[in-house]
Structure formats: C-alpha cells, structure tokens
Amino acid sequence: MTILLSTLNARYTHASLGLRYLYANMAELQPQTQLMEFVIGAKTADVVERLLEKQPRIVGFGVYIWNVEETTRVVAMLKRVAPQVRIVLGGPEVSYEPGEQPIVQLADFLVTGWGDVTFPALCRQILHGPQPLMKIHAGVQPRLEEIRLPYASYSDEDIAHRTLYVEASRGCPFKCEFCLSSLDKTAWPFDLDQFLAALEGLHARGARLFKFVDRTFNLNIRASLRIMQFFLDKLEAHPDDPVFAHFEVVPDHLPEALKEAISRFPPGTLQFEIGIQSFNPAVQATISRKQDNEKSADNIRWLRMHSHAHLHVDLIAGLPGEDLESFARGFDRLVALAPHEIQFGILKRLRGTPIIRHTEAYGMVFDPAPPYTVLATDRIDFNTMQRLQRFARYWDLVANSGRFAHTLPVLLADAPFANFLALSDWLYRNTDATHRIALDRLAALVGEWLCERGLNAAQARALVESDYAGQAHRLHRKPKPAPAEAAPRRQARHLAA
Asked: Is the whole-model pTM more than 0.85?
C-alpha cells in the first residue's frame, strides 16, 4: 500500500471516525490507501514493524491528547529505520501550538484542522509532484455536501465488535473556553436524508450501537426528531434485536416534542451525555458558558422521572474562579438529581483552547505533559487537587461502577461531596492506591468505613453484601482477557472528541 492511515486508539472497541473520513475522501488514491489502527500500550517496535510490512510511501497519523506521547515514539522510530517514508500528522493535538511539539519536529508534514480535502491533496503532491514546499498545511474547510460520508468504510469486524461513531453535524455554536469546539463559528449540519440513508446501510449490515459525536445533538430539534424517529422505527420493527444510541445534549434545551420522543424509547436503548460542568453562574460567565441552571436541573429531573434514558452527566473541577466549596455545592446538587453516572473530571488545558487566557489571573498551573491536567489554581491548591483526582477515581470504582447501588446512598447520606471525599481520603490512606484494587478488597474496605462512621458491624456487612452478592460469583474465577467482542463502555470524556 502506498498510503497508510493510522492512529493509536484508547481501546480496541474505539474506531477512528477521522481516519475513515480521510479514507472515504481519497478519491483516485483510495485503492492504494489502507487503514491500520492500533491501541495505546502496544510496543513501539511492533507498531513500526507492522506499518513497514506494507512498504508505504506515506503514513498519516491521527494525533490526539491520549496518544501523542506514544505516537511520538512511533514517529521517531519510523524516521530512524525508514527515513524515506513521508510522515503526515493531523488531529486536534497537533493542530494548535505545533512549534513546541517534538512530534511535529520529527514529522515531514502537518495538516491542521479539517483534513478531508487537504490531506488527499497533499498526498497527490508528495506522490506526483510538484513537491510541497511548506511543512504546515492549514486544512481547507469545504462545504459538508462536498465531503463523502465515511460509514461504508466501517468493516464487518468494526460493526461486530466496535463502537460506531457517527455525526449528523460538525461544529458547535457555543464558546465554552475549555473545549476546542469553542473555536468553531457555528454548527454545520450534514444533509439529513443522506445521513439517514448511511445509518440505514449500517443497520442493514448489523450495526446496533451508534455513538453520535455531535456537540449539540438537540440544537436543531427538527433534525433531532427525525434521527430519533429513525431509531424508534428500528426498535418497533426489531424489538428482539434493539439498537442503542448515544447522544450529547444541551441540558437546558428540551422542548415538549423532544420529550415526547424520548419517552418512547424502552430501557437500555438510549443514553444521554449531559455537560453541566459547573452550577456556579460566575464561573460559567468566566469561561463563556451559557447555561440556564434551573432549566438544566428541571430537564435532568424530568429525564429521570419520565424516561428510560441512561444519563451520564459531566462536572469539571478546577475551573477558573471555582473553589472547593462551590464545586461541592454543585456536586451535591447534581447528586440530588440522581443521574445514573456523574463523570467527575479535572480540567485539562487542551491545546488551542481559550482557557489559557485565565492562567495568570486565576493562578492556574497545568501539568506540562498530556493530558495537561490542572495541578492548582488560586482557589484550589496542589494537595487538594490531588485529593480531587483520587476522589474521581474512587467515584468511578464505587459509584459509577454500579456495584454499590444499595450502599452508596448510605455512604453519601446528607452531605454527598463531603462524605465521599472523607471516604476517598481514608481509602487512600489504607491502600496507597487508586488502581488495581480487587473488588473483594474494595467491598471489605467500604464495609470497614461504614463501621468507622457508626454503623454496627452486622448492619455494615449486610448492606455491603446486598451489593457484593451480585458480584461474588465472578470473584473467584480466573480473570480472562477482555474479548474483542466485549461491549464497549462509554469513553471517559472525551478525550476522543
């Protein structure tokens, strides 16, 4: 193959939508182009060996915040053992601040921003001349109707074993400064008939799990309703072979027509990712986030009471101007709304995002290594931020895992944030670890903590065992490697976006 399109995904079950867009738009170069995806954690030499087996002339890498360090090592080795291979980079991590990045210095070319048109054009120059003079090529943003949709590029293996990422629109009209989408001027919709025809083709091939990467799925309600009706029709026609759809929704925009459609989805078929990020109006104003907090809370409450949608709601700690007390109030408010999952994240300084403008005014200190997590602000010191990092990890283990459904309300009681932070601190003192804690040990620790908080031993044991019993039959089996066909879990935010 002359041209390889490659990336290192966070998991096997993730399939790169960006690479498939490039492949779909290679035109006459497509027959000599091939996708080669890897997973982070693979040995650098093994990745390089497999790439070079194809004897490529060009290798294009999709570079993201979660894979930049490993991709840098791959590029460095490729240039040492096969300097004749031209390496082209693209993706959000290298599209901004390229001058300071080692991976950009190692590569031959860089395409910033949209690559659908610019990457194929650059390949034609490399292969047929005239040779490109510039290293950095700003991606041309074509009209969406000029872009070939990528969904036919999902293989049968992708459909059988991986999450299928789709998008009905690109861009975002909102300006939240921690997000790269704040750089967009607006959101642009794809032709809806063409998009739904592509979904029909995927469904006919056996696709049942669709994850929409649109930043604002419910911005255009008319389009949202047509897409939801597509899935409702499939559920009605194939009740024994249901589809599952994941959407990212704006929390304060849920008109009655959309509520009616949502209420028709049966359990286990619909998931919403809802970005609250902060309930503090002053913080929201600082980061240019427009959000009606009362309406957002009312909508989450309605979704819990009147729909079967699984709700995954995001909060971010470390935003400029937010102290621990403010974050705790927001966290407690969200717990009271009872979403199925609360994704507790720590702010990350994505390259190119306007959040950097607050660095000096709010004393923000970021880790210089990916994923560029905030280490301290003028409101939250380094030690407290470390405690919050551990809180987030233990929250995933105890709360988001669903393994302690009966125990969790007792753990949280009347002060959810304060109580769970105390548990988090205690767990760390007693384990010195946030990973690789076996479930049986974690259950024992939770029971011990309940005793320390005043519950008698018999009550604590009975409470934990009411959750633990459902897991116990799996504890003493020899662990098996995750099969390729394992159902994919939701990505933690998205880094993948």
From this structure: yes
Look at domain 163-368 and name its CATH class: alpha beta
- Joined tokens for residue 332: 């407690």
Contacts of range 448-453, beta carbons closer than 8 Å, 24 or more positions apart: 449/411, 449/423, 450/407, 450/410, 450/411, 452/426
The model's pLDDT over 368-385, given as tens digits with 9 standing for 90+, comes to 999 999 999 999 999 999
Residue 90, SS3? strand
For residues 352 and 371, give the distance between their C-alpha atoms in angstroms, rounded to a whole number: 13
How far apart CA 156 and CA 141 sit, in angstroms, is 30
DSSP per-residue codes, 276-335: EE---HHHHHHTT----HHHHHHHHHHHHHH---EEEEEEEES-TT--HHHHHHHHHHHH
Give the SS3 label for residue 415. coil
Residues of the chain with CATH 3.80.30.20: 163-368
- Which strand (E) or helix (H) includes residue 234? helix 221-237
Distance of CA 88 to the CA centre of its chain: 24
Residues of the chain with CATH 3.40.50.280: 3-142
Residue-level pLDDT at 474: 40
Domain 3-142 -> CATH class: alpha beta
What phi and psi, each to the nearest 5 degrees, are found at residue 289?
A: -100, 120
pLDDT at residue 471, rounded to an integer: 57
State the chain's mean pLDDT as an integer.
92
Six token digits for residue 409: 């309300």
